[in-house]
Write a structure and sequence with these properties.
globular, 482 residues, 2 strands, 21 helices, two-stranded antiparallel sheet
Length: 482
């Protein structure tokens, strides 16, 4: 357990009281589905940046764990590859996404293909927005701060998230994200000047870290590095990116906002990589999973420690609430409404989404209680979800078949996407299961030493192309009803 002062605990307490109050009062702003799902599509550029940056950086513990163990390769795998993915989204997808005026990624899949593809894609969409890894992070932090079992922190964090997400929807999410944006940068950034003052600068790190910590590849194989490069494609299918693009006031904001956000992510990645390396150099005996909070508590004085833990919690909570809402939207809008009750009213859909929020949290709590690694959850979910969705979504946006219909386009055969999702995900799952049941010193050993995402994506692409060029596409005759 970390020893904090009553002042530090008070700062953290004020933060939680604040976000609970936001959840209580913001419900009055919710009048219809666009309000609850997308804050009425009124996001301005600064708000878009704040909510995107804070939501997309909930895995602070896991990132510092990597830099503690391996050094600068953390920046390559968790930073640089992602910047490329962000740039691709900004220049080639952001405007297209906003102009569709939809609500979710499965909406997008139905627009490209049909309702069967939408329903199948919704399953993987739900999997990718589970906040389980971030809830596990929360449980670890509460355990360190208060000495509680991790499960207590996981359950308590889910209850707090439930309160303001259930009531306020995306409006409550955005308001808390803006606060959390400032807290996460102040809280995490505080550590570096205190670490430099206490231990020294670059010379200290070079004298106390393995040489591999200063190389871009570290101790990683090329294959493992490239796998994380593919995992960065998560951005291209991530529901939170799409949701925030759908929610902007106009189609020019997403591109500008993502480009600005990259600068903030770059700064934060520098923070986390540097902190992880300082923690390893100064306290090599630390548990890598808890290195960030333990090191911070050791170097930060009273008040600053309280600000740090508030910022750390804010960075995690901002992702939990966003993913929880997206999970609820998937269950209500993409599954319940489309499959079971197409004539649902707006108020009934909001109610169903709130029930979906509860289900999402319960599902995620169960995963977090039985999981042992934040990185492991990321890796597994990313491998399966990306193998399923990446190929159909990119083809939907960029494949332009011969123009013949009254609307000037012809639809890709829906079966291409449907079977691509099935075979891509199944291949990845089978590969993962084989590796997890064949361990070598605790590490999975995959067939032919090939990481699961490669065969998963290959199977998805081969099946998609096979169906695409052997089946005649149907002409598009109507718009998708959202």
């Amino acid at each position: 357990m970390i020893d904090l002062s009553i002042i530090d605990y008070s700062i953290v307490g004020i933060y939680f009281v604040g976000i609970i109050l936001i959840g209580y009062f913001v419900k009055k702003k919710i009048k219809n589905v666009p309000d609850y799902f997308l804050a009425g599509r009124r996001l301005t550029l600064p708000i878009f940046v704040a909510t995107l940056v804070s939501t997309w950086y909930g895995g602070t513990l896991g990132v510092v764990e990597l830099s503690f163990n391996y050094g600068i390769v953390n920046w390559l795998t968790q930073g640089f590859f992602w910047y490329i993915s962000y740039l691709f989204f900004a220049f080639f997808l952001a405007k297209k996404v906003r102009e569709t005026n939809l609500y979710t990624v499965p909406d997008q899949l139905e627009r490209f293909y049909d309702k069967k593809v939408r329903s199948l894609g919704a399953i993987f969409n739900f999997l990718m927005v589970t906040p389980a890894p971030y809830m596990l992070s929360l449980g670890i932090i509460f355990s360190l701060m208060f000495g509680w079992p991790a499960w207590v922190g996981i359950v308590l964090g889910s209850v707090i998230t439930l309160f303001y997400t259930y009531r306020g929807g995306f409006v409550g999410d955005v308001i808390t994200d803006v606060i959390q944006f400032f807290l996460m940068f102040v809280g995490i950034g505080l550590i570096i000047p205190f670490a430099i003052a206490q231990f020294g600068g670059l010379e200290f790190l070079q004298a106390n870290l393995p040489a591999s910590h200063f190389t871009l590849t570290g101790e990683w194989t090329t294959q493992m590095i490239l796998v994380w490069g593919f995992i960065a494609f998560w951005t291209l299918v991530d529901p939170s990116f799409y949701q925030r693009c759908y929610a902007t006031k106009d189609s020019s904001i997403p591109k500008k906002g993502i480009l600005i956000s990259i600068l903030f992510w770059l700064v934060f990645d520098i923070f986390t990589t540097t902190i992880g390396m300082y923690a390893r150099a100064a306290m090599p005996e630390l548990d890598p999973v808890t290195a960030l909070p333990t090191f911070a508590a050791a170097v930060l004085p009273t008040v600053f420690a309280g600000l740090f833990f508030t910022g750390l919690l804010a960075s995690i909570m901002s992702t939990i609430d966003s993913f929880t809402l997206l999970g609820g939207m998937t269950l209500s809008h993409d599954i319940y409404k489309k499959v079971f009750k197409p004539d649902i009213t707006e108020q009934e859909e909001i109610k169903a989404t709130r029930i979906g929020v509860v289900i999402t949290l319960v599902f995620s709590v169960i995963i977090a209680l039985f999981a042992s690694s934040i990185i492991g959850i990321w890796y597994t979910i990313g491998t399966v979800g990306i193998s399923a969705l990446l190929v159909p979504i990119l083809f939907g946006f960029f494949y332009n078949p011969r123009k013949t219909s009254s609307r000037g386009e012809k639809k890709i055969p829906a079966s291409a996407a449907f079977y691509s999702i099935i075979f891509g995900s199944l291949t990845a799952v089978v590969w993962l299961v084989w590796g997890y049941t064949h361990l070598d010193y605790g590490w999975p050993v995959y067939w032919f030493n090939i990481e699961p995402m490669y065969p998963g994506l290959l199977a998805s692409l081969v099946v998609f192309l096979g169906v695409l060029f052997t089946r005649k596409p149907k002409e598009v005759t109507e718009e998708v009803e959202i």
